[in-house]
Protein: Xanthine phosphoribosyltransferase
Amino acid sequence: MELLKKKMIEEGAVLSNHVLKVDSFLNHGVDPVLMDAVGKEFAKRFKDQAITKVLTIESSGIAPGLMAALTLGVPMVFARKRRSLTQSEDLVTAKVYSFTKQEENTISVSGKYIHGGDNILIIDDFLANGQAALGLVELAEKAGANIAGIGIVIEKSFQDGGRLLREKGFRVESLAEIESLEDGIISFKQSKAE
Ligand code: 5GP
Structure:
C-alpha cells in the first residue's frame, strides 16, 4: 500500500535491525486519513470472506481494526492486556509474550462478544514473531469462532511470525512487508498486488 509505505519512509525511525518506530501515525499519534485507507484496503482484501467480527488487541490494533470493521459493516472487539474490574466472569484468556515490552501478558476477551458462529478477521499493527496474532487466534478458537484471516498493517518478513501463521494455514494479508531494517534503511518486499 503506497500511502503507508510513503509514511513509513518519511516518518518512521529505524531503532535497530529489528524495530521500526512509527509513533507519528500508528503507535501513539494516529493518522485518521491513513487509517481510513488501511481499513478500506483490509475490507477489500477480505470482502468475500463473510466476516462477522474484527478482533484486535489494545492499543495499537484498535485504530486499523476499527476502520476495517467500519468498512466491512461489522463490530470490532479488542482483547485487553490487563484485566479490568468491569470485565465479566465469562472471560476467555491466552498468554502472549510481548516483542516490544519483553514481558508476558495474559490477554482476554469476554465470551459475550465472540462466540461460535463468528467468522473472525484478526487485525494487528505489526507482525514480528507472531505471538500477538497467535494469542488472538487462541482467544477466537477458545470462544468457538472461526478465523477467516489475519490482516497486518506492517509485517517484518525477516522475523518468523508470517511463516509460522501461513504454515498453520491462516491467510495473512500485510499492507507493507519489510524485508530488512539493516543499516537504518527500510527495505520493502515487493508484494504480489504491486
Ligand atoms: P509479535 O507478537 O508478532 O512478535 O509482535 C507483534 C506485536 O509487537 C505488535 O502488536 C506490535 O505492537 C509489537 N511490535 C513488534 N515489532 C514491532 C516494531 O518493529 N515496531 C513497533 N512499533 N511495534 C512492534
Summary: Residues 99 and 148 are 25 Å apart (CA to CA). The pocket of guanosine-5'-monophosphate is lined by residues 19-22, 27, 60, 99-100, 124-133, 161 (CB under 6 Å). Helices lie at 2-11, 23-27, 32-45, 62-72, 131-142, 161-167. Residues 32-45 form the longest helix (14 residues).
